[in-house]
Amino acid sequence: VEASVPEGQRAAWKKHSAREFKTKEEFENEAVRHIETTLARSLFNCDEAAAYAGTALAFRDRLVIEWNKTQQRQTFADQKRVYYLSLEFLMGRALDNAMLNVGLKDVAKEGLADLGFRMEDIISQERDAALGNGGLGRLAACFLDSLASLNYPAWGYALRYRYGIFKQEIVDGYQVEVPDYWLDFNPWEFPRHDVTVDINFYGSVSQYVDDDGKQRTVWDNGEIVTAVAYDAPIPGYGTTTTNNLRLWSSKASHGEFDFTKFNSGEYEQSVADQQRAETISAVLYPNDSLERGKELRLKQQYFWCAASLFDIVRRFKKSKKPWKDFANQVAIQLNDTHPTLAIPELQRILVDLEGLGWDEAWTIVQATFGYTNHTVLPEALEKWSVPLIQHLLPRHLQIIYEINSQFLQYVEKSFPKEKDILGRVSIIEESQPKMVRMAYLAVIGSHKVNGVAELHSDLIKTTIFKDFVKIYGPDKFTNVTNGITPRRWLHQANPKLSELIASKLGGYEYLRDLTLLHKLEAFVDDKDFRKDFQAIKYANKVRLAQYILEHNGVKVNPAALFDVQVKRIHEYKRQQLNIFGVIHRYLEIKAMSAEQKKKVQPRVSIFGGKAAPGYWMAKTVIHLVNQVGKVINADKEVGDLLKVVFLEDYNVSKAEIIVPGSDISEHISTAGTEASGTSNMKFVLNGGLVIGTCDGANIEITREVGEENIFLFGNLAEDVEDLREAHHKQGFELDPLLKRVFETIRSGTFGDAGQFSALVDSIVDHGDYYLVSDDFKSYIDTQNLIDQSYAKQEEWVTKTILSVARMGFFSSDRCIDEYAEMIWNIEPLKPETNGA
Ligand code: 475
């Protein structure tokens, strides 16, 4: 359908085209207009929520204007686009980010003051968009910011969950999950009721011969659910490029089927069908690094992949280019294996619907996809049962079997003497029931596979994908070390530090090229700079202390050393090591004389993070932290020397307060288990130091900042397997200090010991899989070293300044340029060119 306005009418159109506000006056005008008309409020009933809404709508208008232009420009330029398929985008709040990225936060701040509001209060009205679990989802959000900031033509695709990750409440020390209904006011999304895709499930497969005498396959007669697009603008920093994040929402299709039901009086059934359809995009699965094999999860994955691919193919077909150009126009990145069904789906579209030959189609598929792996934990690797896929997606199962058969033939030819290899690399695991190994399908269907930090990328080549390196050669496997956006994680979260850096570097250009931070090293001995730097850290700690007082009712001393561990609660991340260390510290203090106590470095141990609702061990850790905090915080003999708090409902907006307020943060996974970690980067960038194991990106952070500026401890990844084996064969001697900690827990110091027995037993009786005991001594020694180091404040400040100066490598802009060059082969499209 031709929808554009005829030439003759375009002048009138352009005269009235929407304009962007620039000044404080214009901002106030827009905000008040929205409050009075869009929201139907007045100056007599404008609360902070309404002021937020008015401000957000004013900025939304601005974003939309550039968004439209960007989309027109990208369509016109018709160059290669990248599509980032991620089941999770942990976006957090949008207003502050929008104001900073378009460079009008100060204007809005003054405008809001004129209207009677404080900027901080308005910003905090917004609910987080929490469509993710943890690192993987937040990485996707940082990547969107970098893609737009670097002017790459890029779209994100995900699901529009009605409920994001649950809200965590702590009740009597236990985690309670509360639903996160976040959509009652979301000014950032645009429903596109005209952009829909009908998605088929179940049904049957049949063959026929087409007019050209070709054998064709059709899949139909199943249940149809409609995908409706909801779009959100993603503004770049310091550029007008505004990309699109498209979220699919499910609803019942209104085909003939429904009407038959209505007409035959099956009203109830028809409404039930509708609810069943809407269930698909209802809720984000709250498991981080664990796959549970639920049918609804598989339905979500297919629904999202099929809608996104239909959309991508529809856009490609508009260009009227031949199919052989597809992979020159389209790059699709798979964020973990969750979107792996996109591989057989594209093959199905090309072969069944578009009539391409199998091999021709498969070449296109492989050239289109790239796959990012985020974990080597066996329990996180996705497998779906063959009977389930057979039932839900019968045609896709056929295609997966065909892909597998051709792949295995190739392997057999290449390695005729190796009998076992076929069973090892087959996409189908010969178990009962048979399972489809999604990671293998993702490797086979992509032209590049990457890990997310150097150690991790090496590990996948020697463990889970070892055989595939042999089959395809090492070049198919690569590394892109993770990064973070300095816009949100420095400029937005820590405006004072950002301003101080800008004052030394001659402006904010470093936010677009983070390697410029290295120039800060020249100021490391500058007295005024050091004083300012230290004062900013202190102010951020005061802000965090206020937050703790407000939310936990615990008064902490901002001059104490703030020790933070915030991330998903998981045994491999070893929050248990941290809390056992805290108990050890408590016992040490209790045994001290008044004289000895004077020499103790006061500390605040801060924990935060969600446990998956069914993960009992993780929930036990939360309970223990809270019980320990209750006892220690009330102990008069300890006072300010040690405080322990668990911050409820850790999320992106809370991280923006917590991260700048830390002196030391803990990244203490069993070596070889944490693929990268990204909060480690956030803390160091904000002038905090790290205590960590030689794992994930900690290793590269050490390389960049220097080993004198990080506190590493513990066993190395290469020794973990041997230690585990030794535990099983010979048993092991519990570390004596840890033994004393366990005795204290068993004695009931922190409440009924039975509640914590699973945690203690997993170490004492069940082989200590995560090597808590093996690393305990080294952990305690390193914590003591940190106390001594912190006491020498001048040295400490030097370490933190040098570290900040050396963090340039960890910008997600660097990641995106690496992906663009090595994997996607795409170029930026600058707004100046093509002036649309
Ligand atoms: C790694 N989430 C971090 C980060 O690369 C790494 C898994 C299954 C279902 C839902 N969510 C998940 C993850 O696996 C995840 O967040 N992985 C993390 O990805 C970004 O920095 O080390 O654990």
From TrEMBL:
Highest taxon above the source species: Eukaryota
UniProt cross-references to Pfam families, sorted A to Z: Phosphorylase
Cofactor(s) named in the record: pyridoxal 5'-phosphate
Modified-residue entries (N6-(pyridoxal phosphate)lysine), positions: K682
GO MF annotation: an example: glycogen phosphorylase activity
Endpoints of the signal sequence: none
InterPro entries xref list: Glycg_phsphrylas, Glyco_trans_35, Pyridoxal_P_attach_site
Gene Ontology BP term (one): glycogen catabolic process
Function: Allosteric enzyme that catalyzes the rate-limiting step in glycogen catabolism, the phosphorolytic cleavage of glycogen to produce glucose-1-phosphate, and plays a central role in maintaining cellular and organismal glucose homeostasis.
EC number: 2.4.1.1
Name of this protein: Alpha-1,4 glucan phosphorylase
UniProt entry tagged with the keyword Glycosyltransferase: yes
Protein keywords: Allosteric enzyme, Carbohydrate metabolism, Glycosyltransferase, Pyridoxal phosphate, Transferase
Residues annotated as transmembrane: none
GO CC terms: cytoplasm
The organism of origin for this protein: Cryoendolithus antarcticus
Catalyzed reactions: [(1->4)-alpha-D-glucosyl](n) + phosphate = [(1->4)-alpha-D-glucosyl](n-1) + alpha-D-glucose 1-phosphate
Record family assignment: Belongs to the glycogen phosphorylase family.
